[in-house]
Design a protein that fits this description.
By secondary structure, the protein is mainly α. Helices cover 74% and strands 0% of the residues. The chain is built from five helices and no strands. Helix 1 runs antiparallel to helix 2 and helix 1 crosses helix 3. The radius of gyration is 17 Å and the shape is elongated. The mean pLDDT is 97.
């Protein structure tokens, strides 16, 4: 095996960085969705949701930076163009959504996709003994599961 300066298998680390780049692209789509629904929300729940969406996009922006920095820490280059993000993203794109329920459903659908990717990374980072990435994914998953639960409760839906 070929180990890098972090003491991790270089080949496994490269694969993890690729998965992190996919997560980065999906987070950028999620972030942009949140900005859109924050700007365009209308109706009786405007004030509550406007604030909530701002909270979520601020958090997503922080996570985008953390993911990019982790990719760099692993010795790779983070994706950084919209073209790359569009090609790599599976998160649904929300366009012209202003209805409260449709907005919250977009958040749930987006987080569901992010959680799938994060669980794949969690498994790969565990197998590679990459505690830094593993810890990050574990924290993201815990937080996002709670957000999904709260949004589903708001929608009056079960997990």
């Amino acid at each position: 095996m070929n180990y890098n300066s972090l003491g991790l298998d270089a080949q496994q680390t490269e694969k993890i960085a690729e998965k992190l780049n996919a997560l980065l692209a999906n987070f950028q789509t999620y972030y942009q969705n949140l900005r859109g629904i924050h700007w365009n929300i209308r109706g009786k729940r405007f004030f509550d949701l406007h604030i909530k969406f701002e909270e979520l996009y601020t958090d997503a922006n922080t996570k985008v930076d953390e993911i990019a920095e982790r990719i760099l820490t692993l010795g790779s280059v983070p994706l950084h163009t919209f073209d790359d993000y569009v090609k790599a993203s599976k998160v649904p794109v929300g366009k012209n959504i202003h209805n409260d329920e449709a907005s919250v459903q977009l958040v749930v659908n987006s987080l569901t996709e992010l959680l799938k990717i994060e669980r794949e990374i969690l498994i790969a980072s565990d197998e590679a003994n990459d505690e830094g990435t593993n810890s990050m994914m574990s924290d993201f998953i815990t937080e996002q599961e709670k957000t999904v639960w709260m949004m589903k409760a708001w929608l009056d839906e079960k997990i």
